[in-house]
Amino acid sequence: MQTTPAPHTRHFLLSRWPLLAGAVRWFQTVQRESFNAPLEPILHYSVQRVRKIGAFTIIGHLLFPYIWSVWLPQPWESLWLRFAVGLLGLPLLLYTRPIAMSERSIQWIFSLVTWLQLPVFFSWMYLCNGGNTVWLSSMVAMILIYYHCTDWRLATLGTALGGVVAWLLFQWVGPDVPPIGLYQTKMDAMVLGFAWSAALGLGFSSANLRREHLQHTLATVGIMAHELRTPLATMSLIGEALIGAARAHGNGTPNPQVEQLARRLHGLVRSMNYQIDTQIANARLLGLPSYRESVQVGPLMRTIVADYPYRSTLEQNCIDLHLRQDFTVEFSSALLTQVINNLLKNALKALAASDRPLQRGDLVIEVGASQGRGHITVIDRGIGIDAQLQPRIFDAFFSTDRGTGHGLGLAFCRQALLSANGNIRVESEAGKGAAFIIDLPIIPMPHVQTSEQ
């Protein structure tokens, strides 16, 4: 006797209660499009924006001690504390040479400065002034400003943590002021809760708008790249027709010149199709596949270097692959191939722009491992990258090649590597080439190959 298997509990519940199914779908959408989206510690990042926030920090904390002490006196004010908090703006104000700190460093500095001077300091002053009207209003403004400066997830965590830290400090070393009454605490909690929910909603909406704009732009890039396949297919057919016509005209004997032109045409079509595949893959910046496999880097690098569609034998011969120590990573071979191809394309373009003959060793790829991490370094002797541009080269749609670059390749590289708990950074000097260093966690492998070139 056969029995009907019981339906899956989750599927059964969702089928019986449509509202529950809708709520689950909404939560999954929120999780996919918001919680799993890349963090943006500095919203609308630019050097000028960072410096202006630094200047605002310094000027504000020099001006308000006079306002709250002389013009509109408040119960508690501290000139020395204001001076200390104002000094936090100096690293941001002096942020004029990005080469002095990496992009991740300025993100950490910016996050720390904004956290200390906004939720921590404002919560402290609110408690020290007995939660009066001035500092309740200031807390509302602080919440809105904080969500405008940084990612809504960081702002939410920072607001809660900053309030706790300020309260603990107040209990430990705070001034002796009358405690805030229960009724006032309830009223202030309602006002602050409303301000926080409004800021959270605006931050959430702004993040979705930025994501949708990026998705639409990436989709447009992918569609444009895909549409190029039609004329390329026509070019390929023209090449085959040329060979057929030449053989028919020559009584079956191929014309060497026509054959050579046809081969060049087919090679151009192959190269263009390869570039189209690259651009379509880059356009999937926000939808990277989650598939993972064990990838042995050494053999994969040999395949990548051998299969790359070089424009000339000079390009192919200028590359040296040094396999210092092989390693295995938990990654996608397709994604890692795409990352390396993007770096090779950029390196070859930098070498072409240097206006000197290509030589062996102008492009070097080194593979090695140390302290549980694998490293892939792509080094070129091209034109290099200006120090002012280096912190932004991994941003989507930012390109050092304003004429033909779309700014997706390096953004794709970073996002793909971050998805595998890896990272990428650049070391460069204008006119002296560039080195892109990939760092990935390795997994144990049965044997290790070393000292192969």
List keywords for this structure.
elongated; 60% helix; six-stranded mixed sheet; single chain; Heat Shock Protein 90; two-stranded antiparallel ribbon; 453 residues; alpha+beta; disordered N terminus
Nearest-integer average pLDDT: 80
What gross morphology would you assign?
Answer: elongated
Low-pLDDT ranges: 1-7, 98-102, 448-453
Q: What strand line-up does the widest sheet have?
A: 6-7-5-4-2-8
How large is the count of helical segments?
Answer: 15
Secondary structure elements and pairings:
Layout: H1 9-16, H2 18-35, H3 47-71, H4 79-87, H5 90-93, H6 103-128, H7 133-149, H8 152-173, H9 182-227, H10 229-249, H11 256-282, E1 293-296, H12 297-307, H13 313-317, E2 319-325, E3 328-331, H14 333-353, E4 363-370, E5 373-380, H15 409-418, E6 423-428, E7 434-441, E8 450-452
Description:
Helix 6 (103-128) runs antiparallel to helix 7 and helix 10 (229-249) runs antiparallel to helix 11. Residues 1-7, 98-102 and 448-453 have low confidence and may be disordered. The longest helix is centred in the middle third of the chain and has 46 residues, at 182-227. A 6-stranded mixed sheet has the order 6-7-5-4-2-8. The protein has a two-stranded antiparallel sheet with strand order 1-3. It contains 15 helices and 8 strands. With 453 residues, it is α+β, with helices and mostly antiparallel strands. The protein folds into 3 domains: 47-221, no CATH class; 228-282; 293-452, 2-Layer Sandwich (Heat Shock Protein 90), CATH 3.30.565. A hairpin with a 5-residue loop joins strand 6 and strand 7 (434-441). The protein has helices spanning 9-16, 18-35, 47-71, 79-87, 90-93, 103-128, 133-149, 152-173, 182-227, 229-249, 256-282, 297-307, 313-317, 333-353, 409-418; strands spanning 293-296, 319-325, 328-331, 363-370, 373-380, 423-428, 434-441, 450-452.
